[in-house]
Amino acid sequence: MNIEGFEYRDVRVADDVTLHTAIAGSGPAFVLLHGFPQTHLMWRHVAPALAGDYTVICPDLRGYGASSKPIDGYDKRTMAQDIVTLAAALGHERFALAGHDRGAHVAFRAGLDHPDRVTHLAILDVLPTPEMWDVLRGVDAAVAFHLYLMAQPAGLPEQLIAGAPDAFFGYFLDAWGTAPFAPDVRGAYLEASRNAIPSIVADYRATATIDLEHDRADRAAGRTFQMPVAVVQQDWGFPAAELWHPWAPDLTHQTVTCGHFMAEAAPELITEVLRTLRRK
């Protein structure tokens, strides 16, 4: 499935990686990164609304959708470099960046590593990685069982998920939303995820290993985001904004009730969040 009215290009960002990318609009660039278990299609409502004022760039992340799926390179530093290279290849040295779920982790790293490139940063429904692992303890961690499964060494997680991929990925599509996905959209997400099991697991495994090391080092060094940051997330049952403030001095934090897949459940709200952020 495609986003209606968008041009599609496969853009090379590394020797062995091209990103399947939807592009439309003109003006300053706004890059939108998808989450799990999804593709760039999750922006199908928000992206056209933004394209009247911005050049909107929606890639499938490395390892997802129709983008390349190399064996390695799923640390968020490498994936963030993919996005910087993608924007530059399309003529944009500086850009606003929004990420949901897995894409939010990539956006987080891009904002820290490339403050000269990322002008505005929006994070949808994640916590910073060190804080995420710190708060997911005891029975509260049951909701995030997939994080622990895919953190295991290569082999077992991939085998288990491959045994019933639609049941595994479909669980999250059904459990995390506030309304069912249309059959064609749900089918597109399941097919894309079914065909990307090793790379999806590698992405998650990195979050429990090298990504955590990078983020802990930045936290110890006192590094913060130099650009305006907007965080939108569900009520996680604790004051999440307090966990974001040490990372983002210029922070706008909002709690919503529309579920995890907020760009699809409440596209008008998310579009306005992004427009408001970009005006800062």
Written description of the protein model:
- By secondary structure, the chain is α/β, with parallel strands linked by helices.
- The chain has a single domain (about 5-280), classed as Rossmann fold, CATH 3.40.50.1820.
- The chain contains 13 helices and 8 strands.
- The chain has helices at about 45-50, 75-90, 100-115, 130-135, 145-150, 155-165, 165-175, 185-195, 195-205, 210-220, 240-245, 260-265, 265-280; strands at about 5-15, 15-25, 30-35, 55-60, 95-100, 120-125, 230-235, 250-255.
- The chain has an 8-stranded mixed beta sheet, with helices on both faces.
- It is globular and about 45 Å long.
Brief synopsis:
The chain has helices spanning 46-50, 76-89, 102-113, 129-135, 145-150, 156-163, 165-175, 183-194, 197-207, 210-221, 240-244, 262-265, 267-278, and strands spanning 7-14, 17-24, 29-33, 55-59, 95-100, 118-124, 229-234, 251-256. The chain is α/β, with parallel strands linked by helices.
**Widest sheet, order of strands:** 1-2-4-3-5-6-7-8
Distance between the termini: 34 Å
C-alpha-based Rg, rounded: 17 Å
Low-confidence stretches: none
User: Can you identify the CATH class?
Assistant: Alpha Beta
Mean pLDDT value = 97
Count of helical stretches: 13
CATH-level-2 architecture: 3-Layer(aba) Sandwich
CATH superfamily: Alpha/Beta hydrolase fold, catalytic domain
Q: Level of helix content? A: 40-55%
User: Per DSSP, what share of the residues sits in E-state strands of 2 or more residues?
Assistant: 15-25%
